[in-house]
């Protein structure tokens, strides 16, 4: 069944001094044998056992498995050989302490395509065989040494391998328990399996059907005994199971590990949660910007309005007529603002005043949104105060609507026409006709009727009623948004033109900068957290060496070993991202509520897609952070890993 022909193996621990572990070893082993490999420490027993188990490869010579030379195996075939043919039993059991007895045994089937029910049945059967069917739900670390070794034997048996390899299986047990384990292994060999036991203990060796004595890497004795024991039943060989990795096993291991080291993982997850929360808010803010753009396009910015500016000169009548000649231009008005103040002792309320469109144009172009009252008519001496200014006027406990109809004294600032220096205050009594919505960003304006505004400007500049007001800014209104491009193209040589799009860009600049800052900070936090995750998982690789070794010994491939760590990263990332997302949603609700009265659109908007995207992003970052430690784990040598105590 297994033949070892002229096998030699030399180790070079410090690269120069060779340590020969096996020298020209020849051995043939068959079904149903119970072989004891004995010898002094360092004689090469474990190396021989590991070579039989496909964990170690010889330097020269050949190992044949049912006449197939192992040297033809690639790494995957070695793993498959361990998965289907070999069950390992170790001196220190190598059970996962926080898993139950059943879960420990199930682990051996993690690489095979068994149905859940079938797998369960096989595990229970294996545990019955070792006499532990009553303890299946007990935690492995609650068992005695002998019981733990029985679980380890059940784990080796559950795949129905035809070879059981046991390295000092009684080394950590008292003599009575040792005898029970040896009896168990003997029984297993009588089922027709090959059982190879490495032992120091001559009393154990004497019970084997064959003793192979090793000294300095050579077989010095190969003796068959207890002939009656070699009478055996034929095992019904199971066909090899298709490889199918049960991700569930990797996740179960990682879940238990995270539970065990919860404080460590909790601290690391705070960083990820904060970063993810920031990331979510940045996305939510992005939707807020879209809302703001929508709001501004509807309410703040007139989509048909262009601002024309002459850089050097004042605009004159010829400019005006030139503009009016364009068929798309419907209205041209000079643009100027007035500075005004209301004296409410001891305070002075200062604000700027713009003209309202004439009534005939009000249906065509954007108007400030009225909260209370009505916009003043053309001939009225009324003012539409902005919400912010109106609030300053209110007496404590007063309501905004109570201001409507009240008369107030407003002082408009007059300028010296030549020097442009403010020279005196022009006092007017005006009725408060309306209160308009406060704009969230940009300047607040109050409005007075167009002609009245022109009159105040002329008076403030000391010019006659029939004179033109000099300005270098014109408001130009077109018939439709679609005409803007052609108008701009025609006049861009002579004027600096600001389109509604430019205005919007300017208005959203602050938002974009805030969003950029939040994104930047959250990315920085995520970068630092992912480095921390990488470090934590690197520590995890060091601490989970036994699990990695075990996974490889039961036939796990490198890819599957990586999954032990990916599952850890996914669980950690998933939990931290969910926490971060919940935190983000809480911040969103609080901020939106707090700003509800001040702004008229949703500043932060989170939808299901954003939530899923954020959680996915958090998980991806964690998986990326775990790449290096996971690859490192996959490359580790199982023999070294299993040797550590
Ligand atoms: N990975 C390794 N690197 C370097 N030397 C090694 C390695 N594995 C084994 N050796 C050396 O090879 C020799 C045989 O080791 P092996 O573990 O097979 O002996 P053993 O008989 O099983 O010993 P023990 O009973 O103490 O476990 C020893 O001298 C050991 O130091």
From TrEMBL:
InterPro entries: AAA+_ATPase, ABC3_permease_C, ABC_transporter-like_ATP-bd, ABC_transporter-like_CS, MacB-like_ATP-bd, MacB_PCD, P-loop_NTPase. Signal peptide: none annotated. The chain crosses the membrane at residues 265-286, 516-542, 563-591, 603-625. It comes from the Bacteria. One of its GO terms (molecular function) is ATP binding. Belongs to the ABC transporter superfamily. Macrolide exporter (TC 3.A.1.122) family. This is ATP-binding cassette domain-containing protein. It comes from Lysinibacillus xylanilyticus.
């Amino acid at each position: 069944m297994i033949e070892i022909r002229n096998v030699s193996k030399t180790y070079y621990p410090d690269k120069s001094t060779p340590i020969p572990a096996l020298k020209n070893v020849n051995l043939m082993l068959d079904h149903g044998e119970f072989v004891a490999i004995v010898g002094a420490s360092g004689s090469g027993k474990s190396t021989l056992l590991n070579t039989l188990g496909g964990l170690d490869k010889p330097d020269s010579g050949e190992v044949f498995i049912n006449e197939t030379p192992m040297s033809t195996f690639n790494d995957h075939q070695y793993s498959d050989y361990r998965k289907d043919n070999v069950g390992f039993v170790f001196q220190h059991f190598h059970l996962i302490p926080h898993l139950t007895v059943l879960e420990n045994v199930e682990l051996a089937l993690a690489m095979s395509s068994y149905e859940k029910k079938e797998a369960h049945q096989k595990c229970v059967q294996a545990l019955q065989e070792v006499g532990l069917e009553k303890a299946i739900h007990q935690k492995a670390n609650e068992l005695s040494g002998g019981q733990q070794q029985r679980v380890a034997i059940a784990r080796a048996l559950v795949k129905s391998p035809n070879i059981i390899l046991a390295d000092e299986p009684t080394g950590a047990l008292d003599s009575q328990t040792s005898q029970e384990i040896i009896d168990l292994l003997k029984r297993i060999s009588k089922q027709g399996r090959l059982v190879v036991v490495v032992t120091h203990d001559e009393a154990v060796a004497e019970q084997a059907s064959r003793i192979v004595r090793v000294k300095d890497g050579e077989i010095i004795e190969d003796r068959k005994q207890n002939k009656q024991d070699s009478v055996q039943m034929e095992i019904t060989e199971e066909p090899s199971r298709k490889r199918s990795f049960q991700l569930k096993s990797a996740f179960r291991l990682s879940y238990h590990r995270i539970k065990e080291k919860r404080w460590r993982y909790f601290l690391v997850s705070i960083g990820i949660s904060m970063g993810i929360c920031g990331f979510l808010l940045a996305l939510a803010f992005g939707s807020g910007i879209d809302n703001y753009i929508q709001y501004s396009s509807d309410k703040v910015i007139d989509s048909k309005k262009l601002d024309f500016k002459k850089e050097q000169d004042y605009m004159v009548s010829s400019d005006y007529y030139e503009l009016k000649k364009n068929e798309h231009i419907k209205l041209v008005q000079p643009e100027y603002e007035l500075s005004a103040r209301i004296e409410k002792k001891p305070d002075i309320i200062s604000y700027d005043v713009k003209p309202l469109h004439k009534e005939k144009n009000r249906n065509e172009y954007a108007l400030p949104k009225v909260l209370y009252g009505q916009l003043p008519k053309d001939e009225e001496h009324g003012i539409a105060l902005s919400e912010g200014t109106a609030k300053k006027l209110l007496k404590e406990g007063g309501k905004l609507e109570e201001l409507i109809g009240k008369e107030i004294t407003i002082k408009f600032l007059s300028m010296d026409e030549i020097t442009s220096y403010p020279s005196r205050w022009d006092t007017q009594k005006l009725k408060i006709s309306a209160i308009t919505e406060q704009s969230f960003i940009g300047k607040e304006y109050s409005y007075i009727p167009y002609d009245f505004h022109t009159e105040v400007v002329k008076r403030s500049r000391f010019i006659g009623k029939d004179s033109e007001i000099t300005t270098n800014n014109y408001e130009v209104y077109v018939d439709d948004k679609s005409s803007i491009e052609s108008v701009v193209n025609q006049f861009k040589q002579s004027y600096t033109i600001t389109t509604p799009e430019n205005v919007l860009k300017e208005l959203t600049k602050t938002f974009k900068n805030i969003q950029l800052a939040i994104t930047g900070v959250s990315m920085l936090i995520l970068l630092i957290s992912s480095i921390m995750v990488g470090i934590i998982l690197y520590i995890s690789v060091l601490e989970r060496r036994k699990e990695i070794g075990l996974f490889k010994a039961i036939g796990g491939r490198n890819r599957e070993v990586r999954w032990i760590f990916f599952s850890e990263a996914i669980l950690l990332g998933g939990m931290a991202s969910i926490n971060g997302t919940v935190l983000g949603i809480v911040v969103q609700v609080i901020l939106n509520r707090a700003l509800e009265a001040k702004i008229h659109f949703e500043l932060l908007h989170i939808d299901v897609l954003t939530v899923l995207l954020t959680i996915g992003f958090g998980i991806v970052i964690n998986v990326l952070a775990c790449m290096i430690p996971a690859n490192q784990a996959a490359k580790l040598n199982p023999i070294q890993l299993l040797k550590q105590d």
